[in-house]
Amino acid sequence: MRRSTYVKIRKLTALYVIGLVASVWTLFPIYWLVKSSLTPNKLMYTPQPKLIPAEWTFSHYQELFTKSPFLGFVKNSLYIALLVTVISVAISVLGSYSLTRLRFPGRGFMLKSIIYTYLLPVAVLFIPMYVAISRYGLNNNKNALLVVYPTIVVPYCCYMLISYFKAIPKELEEAALIDGCNRLQSLAKVILPIASPGIAVVSTFAFTLSWNEYLYALVLTTTPAQQTVTIGIASFNFGDQTIWGLLTSSSVIASIPAVLLYFLAQRFLKTGLAAGGVK
Amino acid sequence: MKTAAVKRRDDRLLGYGLLVPVAVIVFVIIGIPFVNAIYLSFTDKVVGVTPKFIGLANYMAIFSDKEYWKVLKNTVVFTVGSVGVKLVLGLLLAVVVNQNFFGRGLLRAVLLVPWALSGMVSAVTWRWMYDDTYGIINALLLRWNIVHLPVAWTSDPSIALLSVIIVNIWKGLPFFIFSLLGGLQTIDGQMYEAATIDGAGKVRQFFAITIPSISPVIAITVLLSTIWTFNSFEIVYLITGGGPLHASAVISTYTYEVAFLQNKMGQSLAVAGSIIPILVALIIFSMRKLNKDD
User: Fold this and answer.
1) In terms of Cα–Cα distance, which of B180, B134, B182, B177 is closest to B154?
2) Measuring CA to CA, how many Å separate B139 from each of A36, A155, A248, B262?
3) Domains along chain B?
4) Is residue A195 part of a domain?
5) What percentage of residues in chain B have a pLDDT greater than 70?
6) A134 lies in a domain?
7) Signal peptide position in this chain (chain B) (predicted)?
8) Which of A20, A26, A255 best probes binding to B when mutated, by most B CB atoms within 10 angstroms?
9) I need a surface site. Which of A70, A110, A175, B249 has the fewest CB within 10 A?
10) pTM for the predicted model, two decimal places
11) Chain A contact for B151, CB < 8 A?
């Protein structure tokens, strides 16, 4: 009896020590990002920064929105990410419905091609895409991203939506078809309402993927008027030396969609992940 | 009432019709530039000039370039180092958050955070912490007397690659923890009870039950992470820029450098093209695990 209590205490201690170390490792960089965005310059540029600054300030945020092109970057990012999400989710819903509910030759090939493109990294594709976009005179035009981002987002959305659609019992749709609905009506009236929580999750991911994208935006846009948040922030580097207030505050703002995604995933992890993992 | 044959034909037509937009994206918007790029890697393409076919010259040029091999080696070290550590720590932490203890939910929530942040935000944050003069990491190491001189995290050739590996681990660990946790949750607890009755210790149980039960999950997690890590860009580009002297350059940043700083488009396509065989192998392995149709 005493021995087993001893073992339990030892195990709990180990769990808490590991948990604490892992939490500090995970959260400290984020704390430091937020803390730096609120630290006045005179306390920021010292070789011995305090873990908790003696003074706080919103001046970096003020400067960011009033004296830098940041707001323009945010508008561009919103424009791109919203449009790409709507276009990509619509395309993917139709494609995934076709791939899960209809039978036709070439279906398996199409499924494979989608997973292939989902796995094909941007690092291999960005120069080819740059060459193609330049040929059509679309370089340094943010609208080029509307063409290019679906190549990342659509394969991902299809991959996710196919699982959701497969989980919907065929019988529900068959009933609708017998009642005289055609396929498109049954998609709109049966499948979409049932799959809507899944579509919401997929849309959030699609939005975040576009909002966070870096490499394509880096090579396809060159002037601030066309650039998105990810590229715009990094370009603050080239200004003067003490630019970290702007860099950190803009990074905090740029992470807002990530925060939403994070809370969504939280719910997901509690309820859905275990069930989804079994498939 | 339509006949069954007509219905089947209608379904087939609709099936193709609904797939047209996806097919355009996969085969036109990705496919055509991709095939064209393979052709251009055999030309002397520079921006704004008609390319001329030069055979294997670009590939010969990069394969005989010491810098290329250095970068490829860095990429392998970066990938194997990051993925290896992420797997070991991910497994440890997945087992930890799979135990029952007070605060487990909170710990899970905390460990997920870096996953949600963009590569750019992670890179900016760490670069600021790594700063030679004002960075918090050096400040703490000096304050605690762990080092006596500031460490040049991003500009010392022997440390730069390690610095970007650390950031990649920080950013990529949640994916490992939660996908392995998903695997752990499917293991039947009765197997452990049976093993305990048979007298197997915890360590023995871990290697005889836990690892074999989740080995498919481990395989797919490692494969996906290997593909992503092998091609990651922002972390290296924004923290060290691949420097100093290519000490931390990886294939993706080197491709960018050859294309836009050295202005050799054809050669940069050869750099990107040269890793396609490795990628295709990884992708084919992953496909076997991911293919949902059968």
Assistant:
1) B134
2) 15, 45, 19, 37
3) 1-40 (no CATH), 56-290 (1.10.3720.10)
4) yes
5) 97
6) yes
7) none
8) A26
9) A175
10) 0.90
11) no
